Queue: 2 jobs
Job 1
Amino acid sequence: MSVQKELVINTAWCKGCGICAAFCPKEALELVKGKARLKEENACILCGQCEQRCPDYAIYVKETEGGAEQWVKPY
Amino acid sequence: MIDTSNVSEKTVNTSDLIYKYMRPEHLPHIWCPGCGHGIIMRDVAQAVENLGLDRDKVVLVSGIGCSSRAAGYMDFNTIHTTHGRAIAFATGIKLANPELEVIVLTGDGDASAIGGNHLIHAARRNIGLTVIVMNNTIYGMTGGQYSPTTPRKAFGTTAPYGNLDRAFDLAGLAYGAGASYAARGSAFHTQQTIQMIQEGIRHQGFSIIDVASVCPTYFGRKNKKGSAVDMLRWQKENSVTVEQAKKMTAEQLQGKLVIGVIHQVQYPEFTFEYQKLIQRLAKEREE
């Protein structure tokens, strides 16, 4: 069983402190109108540095089980 | 992945860790944007998850202050007590039921000023509590008065010309008072802090983890330290490990944050000794 990961931002909880953007190793996050936002879809490497330091638990790497067939190489 | 099968179905947009160990109906918390306390509270949840403790066997005790709001947000057996008396209440809980893991979440003022006496005597007694001090070096909730951990020459609302007193080194104070585990972490160094909290919980005896937090609203503004990001960056750039600090001179250590395990020793734990005493007296009575 594989685990699929994706970055989720809960803007309702985001207070716009900018910690996630400042400590993102890929500089993939930015603040827009006081809320965190992912600059580009593929820029995030799902390392979880933002999740560890977000004081408001508004950003996290969501793990979902399943989707195994998606990861099977077609060759 | 975190097993959330024993908690009700997820209704808010947050991670499994937060959903399992916090009360999401009370979130977002009231702490200021960029407050380090939120980071430290997550570290506690992560440490408990890593250790695989039963939530019903963990008690969180807090006093009064910004930091002590944490007991309201975390979903364990929690008690929000009077100012400075968190360790006193925790001592009672631990003695009444020694199999519980009692964790005290407290602030620097709560632990070292109002409850300073409780801190040193709990350390001397070596009772099996884990004290996590969210040390933001100021009284945040009441408006930025200087606390016993405010650095010398730093400003506060009650120190408009700079603080004259030296700061307490809380881990060192507890070590001097007899604590068998004393460590210092920081809001920036999450992995190390989680590790220290885990060790502190597992340690038999009094353990204190003095975690340097950031208060951008009062300490940051009064001392022109910049935003929460700048303050966390300061922690990143100015922290040295205990091992490195041993090779440095006093001048080189000026303005540095020494993180790591300051002191660790095995010493008989109080509730264990107390049970032994009860058994010995019961046996003597029979004879």
Job 2
Amino acid sequence: MLLSLMIFIPLLGMIVVLLLPRESEELVKRVTLLFTLIPLALAVYLFITYDRSTAGTQFFHGPVPWIDAFNIQYHIGVDGLSVTLLLLTALLGPICVIASWRNIEKGIKAYMALFLLLETGMLGFFAALDLFLFYVFFELTLLPMYFLIGIWGGPRREYAAIKFFLYTLFGSVLMLVAMIAVYLNSNIVNGVAEGLRTFDIPTLITLAATQGHALADSDFQIWVFLGFFIGFAVKVPIFPFHTWLPDAHVEAPTAISVILAGILLKMGTYGLVRVNMAMFPQGLDHFTNGIGFWGNSLALLGFINIVYGSFCALAQTDFKKLVAYSSIGHMGFVILGLAARNDPGITGAILQMFNHGVISAMLFLLVGVLYDRAHHREINGFGGLGTRMPIYTGITTLAFMASLGLPGLSGFVGEALSLLGAYDKFKFLTILSTIGIVVGAAYFLWTLQRVFLGTLNPKYEALSEINGREILTLVPLAILTVLLGVWPNLAIDMFRESVTNLINVLHAI
Amino acid sequence: MQPLSNIDSLLHFSPEILLVIFATAVIILDLIVKNRESVAVAHLALVGCLCTLAAVLFIHFSFGKGEPVSLFLGMIQLDVFSTFFKVLLLLATAATILFSLRSEELDAKLKGEYYALLLVITLGMFLMASATNLLMIFIALETVSLTSYILAGFLTHNPRSSEAAFKYITYGAVASGTMLFGLSLLFGMAGTGDLTQIGGRLAELLASGEVSSLTLLIAITFVLAGIGYKIASVPFHMWSPDVYEGAPIPITAFLSVASKSAGFALFIRFFYTGFGSTGLMEAVDWPFMLAIVSALTMTVGNLAALPQQNVKRLLAYSSIAHGGYLLMGGVLLTSEGIGAILFYLVVYLFMNLGAFYVVVLVANEMGSETINGYRGLSSRAPLVAVAMMTFLFSLTGIPPFAGFFGKWILFTAVLEQGYYWLALVGLLNSVVSLYYYARIVKAMFLEDTSEETDRVSFSTGTFALLSVFVIPTVFIGFLNIFYTFSNISVSVIPMQ
């Protein structure tokens, strides 16, 4: 019940915001902030009271029958992985509202309403335990995102918005086919249909591990794995489905870039863990067993993401595009870690999901701060800002260092664990992937040098220092970055049991 | 099941009789009322729809609760299936009358004929949904066709409308002629026009070798021309973009929803009742033919819609594409497939009529039917823009709108029968369709108007009517009762 409350409070907030008069902009903002702070409070409560010693789902609501004809149920609940990502989502909610406080000039009411709808979609997605519900929440994020990029975005917003929409929908329909195929086979044991079909994720995971069940057939698993994989790969994004991301990130307003990088990309990797890995271990095995081309394919994609993303980032002169491509690189570590299928690999991947959510959110907020003042993002157009904006420079340096994987900050732990796990299975690819880390250090340090060091561009003599509101959005994220850098077990303890459980499933085949 | 005699049938036939009475009354009232601006005629037609609806429901609930009854010595059949379509068609007709009341392009002088013809076309569609005899099928189809020619050309001052009517009649005549030839071949072979017997006869003749499967193939293909023309399936779809663009908007809306629904009713009954037996399908694999037609129809419709600038024309192509999706359900030979078609038709009724209603409103207020005319609608009429957005995304099939649930049960039915290629074609087509639907959304929400930004105000009645379409488009998918339509198909699919 608590969880349902958390998911639907932003939706209630959307209705409230829509009923407010158009003129009272301050009120709209405050109400929105309130309706994003309540889920945050609930998420913190979940985080604290979550029983870390078991892998089972907790705080569940349902199953409540919804569409009887297809045995679709309303069923939600959290395990260690989802509770971590719910916390991240709930945390970025109010941060994004504060970050949008002054930057959104037109239609603030519609903006906030769509933002709240988006938050419901994201929270619901991470908590859904019914595959159909999962899909509906997954798609529910599309509409608000399309409008948020398309209406409040930059000059090429229309192109970016429809590209994002089309790519994601393309992935979703393949996922839909796979989902229907899973549903239709969910009651077939040894070729005979018995009982009701189901969408219930925990039930499906059990069935897929049952000898003789249609879902446990390895050919079937490979095909549905592919269907779901493409759906999630577009979202992550995994090469070659990544081209929507730089466009969407660059055109989206700051707060929406934060959500895109912080949460939407995690929806892809979360889906890979929740559905592809847990439900189709044999399908996963086919793509990660290290034999031949297909056996290395997932790790190969991770490697391409890391190296290709990093090199693309190195070539950018637009600050925001650089951060966008660096996201592609960092999501590669998640894929590589998941492909390893062992304890350090999966733990590292999940940790990296959370950490990347925090760090990339910081980076996009920082880019936004600079853009609001200078009205451009050309890296070569700045120089010597360190003297004008010392606090800003300090926070940016922290975020850069965290992102490039400096030990002691959170980015390091996740990437190191992912590589550690992957080295066990894919030695050659892992060694090559470290190129990405070197290039990552190169582009971040080079950017630091071009923007903050050197002589001050006289145009920016009057640039004002980062203000209190902006610091307020960055401080919680900075604290988390340092905290998880020195005490990663704070997060790892949350999902340790879930990972152990997942590995047992993976090894049972 | 013993067919009722002509006299006994009359009571069961009362909805159709009521339609005829009201059509006549509309014409007489039009002669009496001198005031050209009066809306009395339209209201009488509306009352006619409601009375007919009441009669349909009364007959359904008072006589055998939908047990099939054969009327007029086997000419038409009254069952749940036809009742379902009658209700659907009456809703579409009532909506069309309401649109026409608000549309400013119709000629006030001709409104008596206009509303009378609407009622007559509904009568024809009733017959299409219930005909079980080859002759009756042809008469029903012609009743609908001839009236639609007149209605398509109703804007006498507009050359495009006349062109639409002319094209419609030319294609229509060819299609009817071809179909009639096919029907006569069937009658000639089987010696009976009764759909319930024709399948058995033909199977016997095929088994004894008196009829070759080639002749049967030709006959069925020819009949398909007539039905394909009504549901605008490839390659008989060419008329629809021109007609949809030229006809008055309410008529376009009516044709795209009602004509298509009636076409599907006829299609399902003709093929399932007449040619659903295994023996016949071995000789002529019509489900496979239709699967190909379905894939082509949706692909051609969607690809042709991509570059359109005129919203009516765009919706015409989109309606062709939706015919393709619906056809998928028809090739499955399962009650789930039929149930999915029926569910989708209900959803399609609301979302497509809603979209056309917005087209009427925009044409009235902005005087434009092109996508550019929709620019900045979100700031000028936010509620209308949001409603249009709902309809368009529902047509695309994006959750949480009803269109998604419609596609969902359609594709589930398709995949259940193992037609993976067809489902993939359909789903990829949905992705393509997003592009052109989103172009309208983009114009409404994403593009700023350069010129005027005055708010456009609409009456409460307009919003009330709009919400009649918006609310089902949002909520149908969440209600359990709409998922039981597969039971309706029982009377159509013969027991194997």
